[in-house]
Design a protein that fits this description.
The chain is of the alpha/beta class. The protein is built from 6 helices and 5 strands, in the order βαβαβαβαβαα. The chain is globular and about 45 Å long. Bound molecules: D-ribose. D-ribose (RB5) binds next to helix 3.
């Protein structure tokens, strides 16, 4: 499995914790920036991660201060289904029902312990398909 990940300065610290956590599980992680806490613009990072997810079919994770800017930016790309999650239930459901392909987290909102649980559940949960496939197809019209 390959995960592509990105953050702005507001999500930089949590992003690094997620990278370490995923690598410990043997998951290959591609970090598309940012690479320091210097202020930067989340739409640019969201665009790079969204492009990679659409090109390769891998899953992506985006972290900013709230998770909201990243989710708004990523969802501008046709085919992206970015989900801002602050709890494990929505992380599970957005995989099962929405086939979410990008997880968005807010470093200033969600503590790192919970954030890592959200990541684990989001990665492991499979899409249910069936009636949900029809609804997802409707998003692209
Ligand atoms: C940066 O200060 C902050 O605006 C950004 O990380 C994010 O929360 C935007 O939605």
């Amino acid at each position: 499995m390959q995960i592509v990940i990105g953050s702005d300065h507001g999500g930089y610290s949590l992003k690094n914790k997620i990278i370490e956590h995923l690598k410990e599980q043997g998951i290959e992680v591609s970090d598309l920036g940012c690479y320091s806490t210097e202020s930067c613009d989340y739409p640019l990072v969201a665009k790079e991660v969204a492009k990679k997810v659409l090109e390769t079919g891998c899953k992506g994770i985006l972290v900013c201060g709230t998770g909201i800017g990243m989710s708004i930016a990523a969802n501008r790309f046709k085919g992206v289904r970015a989900s801002h999650c602050t709890d494990t239930f929505t992380a599970r459901m957005t995989r099962m029902h929405n086939d979410s392909n990008i997880l968005c987290l807010g470093e200033r909102i969600t503590g790192s312990g919970l954030a890592l649980d959200i990541v684990d559940i989001w990665i492991k949960t499979e899409f249910e398909g069936g009636r949900h496939s029809r609804r997802i197809d409707m998003l692209e019209i």
